[in-house]
Write a structure and sequence with these properties.
By secondary structure, this protein is mainly alpha-helical. It is built from 27 helices and 4 strands. Keywords: Disulfide bond, Glycoprotein, Membrane, Metal-binding, Sodium, Symport, Transmembrane, Transmembrane helix, Transport. It is found in: Membrane.
Length: about 625
């Protein structure tokens, strides 16, 4: 009697294991419609505004062509390994950054941290896109409004052109009696921003930017409310278009007087700079930010791939294109800055700026001096708009898909509503950034929220996959997808080299992260504290979710519970039925296990048998 009862109990347990471990949702999740959708979307996501306004400045500041050496070294040591890891991670599971931590439930907070970072950056990134929209609208004029001093926002300090005063203008050096400011800088500060004296004075809402921000979020909604089916089609235009514009601008720039001097200034190496620790740190940070690791976007985009897509090939291709874009954009920018310096009769280092100052002051000033200047202005800001939206698509899709994958029964059929609510909430949160003092708020968010926290999230992700899940098992997962094992070098990179490099980058970012400033203006203590809170908030879910998971897991001791939570959940693995059958079969020939909710191992042989029986029953 007890034997039969026990047998029935075993059967029911096996059936339960099969239901949870081997029966995926086959048609619940969309995927890319074409082979190029993923590559183009990843390129659009990774190639952001930083490639245009940060890399060229860093290159100039850090030794010209000599900067390429540490830049490429960190691409090899950090960029490729992390990008490959996240592509394989996302493609294997077909899950977004939160739910994907079925691989190691103890660290589910890592995925939440990724989503928080992306959500915060989405807020202010679309404000920058709104600036480009406003500049784009203002470019459709026969005379560009930032090319002269006859506007209502100009004052007695304004000068047309760059003659003789450029060195004071671009560097904001104040003379004893008079400070001269170019028309483009006054357009930016007095009209677009209508900037106040500090963050204490927020001023009023800029209605022009309110309209532009509304349009930016409307565009995001229209491209994402139907999911990746629409996004993939959009990216067939949005990803290659900036390259076409960059090529046109480069050809035009090379025909200008002074362009060669500008390019020489950009690429001629100053080897002594390689002895500066700051140069190596800046190169590492630039790779980390530009390739897009730890934001969750790469995992999300890869999760829509076909299970047998060649993730290895794609993971090598996208970082190369991304970094090549940065270098290419430098030629475009410096050819025009060379012309700008030539026109003013000064040197290139007197006109170069970084960040918004390059794209919204220096470059527009140079474009205003070109024949048919409105045409070049339209092309330039249309390119910036496209690049900004491409990255915004990836970050916002990360947020949407994370909620849907975490609560599929509740939200998968309500994607349109979720996208609309998400866009509206992010739009409201962005309103403080489009007040007269909004640039100070935006600077705080950019300064703190996507800095040291990203490195910590990435470091934990790398250590968990390499050491807890194990590189050998990860290799087998990749082999299951692409049909062969990657080179053994990745084993050592993921386990030793890359974590060490990430830790070094994290230390560098912490050491060099001083109090936030904008245009030389210091912030009050409360604003700096607020910035640190923004930076830390994405790390809070990691220990918090550890505590919650440990409390909710069965076990006599904490150590026993932790051990159970470091074993992949029984729902971990490929999502499609045929792929999952192969995966379970591969587990049955190895010592690797999945775990039930009580932490006990799933019997893979029994699960596979039950799975086959279920398929036979369905077929009959």
């Amino acid at each position: 009697m007890s034997s039969n009862s026990s047998s029935k109990d075993d059967d029911s347990v096996c059936m339960e294991k099969m239901e949870h471990a081997a029966v995926p949702k086959t048609k619940a999740r969309d995927g890319w419609q074409g082979r190029m959708d993923f590559i183009l979307t990843c390129i659009g996501y990774a190639v952001g505004l930083g490639n245009i306004w940060r890399f060229p400045y860093l290159c100039y500041k850090s030794g010209g062509g000599a900067f390429f050496i540490p830049y490429i070294i960190f691409l090899l040591l950090c960029g490729f390994p992390l990008f490959f890891m996240e592509v394989a991670f996302g493609q294997f599971s077909s899950l977004s950054p939160v739910t994907i931590w079925r691989i190691c439930p103890l660290f589910k907070g890592v995925g939440m941290g990724m989503v928080i970072v992306s959500a915060i950056v989405c807020i202010y990134y679309n404000v920058i896109v709104a600036w480009t929209i406003y500049y784009l609208f203002m470019s459709f004029r026969s005379v560009l409004p930032w090319s002269h001093c006859h506007n209502s926002w100009n004052d007695d300090r304004c000068v047309d052109g760059l003659e003789g005063t450029l060195n004071k203008t671009m560097l904001n050096i104040t003379s004893v009696n008079l400070t001269k400011v170019t028309a483009s800088e006054q357009f930016w500060e007095n009209h677009v921003l209508d900037i106040t004296d500090g963050i204490e004075d927020s001023g009023s809402l800029r209605w022009q930017l309110f309209i532009c921000l509304s349009l930016a979020w409307l565009c995001v909604f229209l491209c994402l409310f139907k999911g990746v089916k629409v996004l993939g089609k959009v990216m067939h235009f949005a990803a290659p278009f900036p390259y076409l514009v960059l090529l046109v601008l480069l050809i035009r720039g090379l025909t200008l007087p002074g362009a060669v001097e500008g390019i020489k200034f950009y690429i001629i190496p100053r080897w002594e700079k390689l002895a500066d620790f700051q140069v190596w740190g800046d190169a590492a940070l630039q790779i980390f930010y530009s390739v897009g690791m730890a934001w969750g976007g790469i995992i999300t985009m890869a999760s829509y791939n076909n299970f047998h897509n060649n993730a290895y090939r794609d993971a090598m291709l996208v970082p190369i294109i991304n970094c090549g874009t940065s270098i290419f954009a430098g030629f475009v920018i410096f050819s025009v800055l060379g012309f700008m310096a030539h026109t003013a009769g000064t040197t290139v280092d007197e006109v170069v700026k970084q960040g918004p100052g390059l794209t919204f002051v220096a470059y527009p000033e140079a474009v205003a001096k070109l024949p048919i200047s409105p045409l070049w202005a339209v092309l330039f800001f249309l390119m910036l708009y496209t690049i900004g939206l491409d990255s915004q698509f990836g970050m916002f899709e990360t947020c949407i898909s994370s909620f849907i994958d975490e609560y599929p029964r509740l939200l998968r059929s309500k994607r349109v509503l979720l996208a609309a609510v998400g866009c509206f909430v992010e739009f409201l949160l962005g309103l403080p950034c489009i007040t007269q003092g909004g640039i100070y708020v935006l600077q705080i968010m950019d300064w703190y929220c996507a800095s040291f926290s990203l490195m910590m999230i990435s470091l934990i992700e790398c250590l968990v996959i390499a050491w807890i899940y194990g590189t050998e098992r990860f290799y087998k997962d990749i082999e299951l997808m692409i049909g062969y094992k990657p080179h053994a070098i990745w084993h050592y990179m993921w386990r030793f080299v890359t974590p060490t490099v990430i830790f070094g980058i994290w230390l560098f970012s912490i050491i060099t992260l001083g109090p936030v400033t904008y245009d030389g203006k210091s912030y009050p203590t409360w604003a700096i504290v607020f910035g640190w809170i923004l930076g830390i908030v994405s790390l809070v879910p990691i220990p918090l979710m550890m505590i919650i998971q440990i409390i909710n897991t069965d076990g006599d001791t904490i150590i026993e519970r932790v051990k159970k939570l470091t074993v992949p959940a029984k729902t971990w693995g490929p999502s499609m039925e045929d792929d999952r059958e192969i995966y379970i079969q591969s587990l049955s020939h190895n010592t690797y296990t999945l775990s039930n909710m009580d932490g006990s191992p799933v019997d893979c042989e029994e699960a596979l048998l039950q799975h086959k029986q279920k398929i036979d029953m369905n077929n009959s």
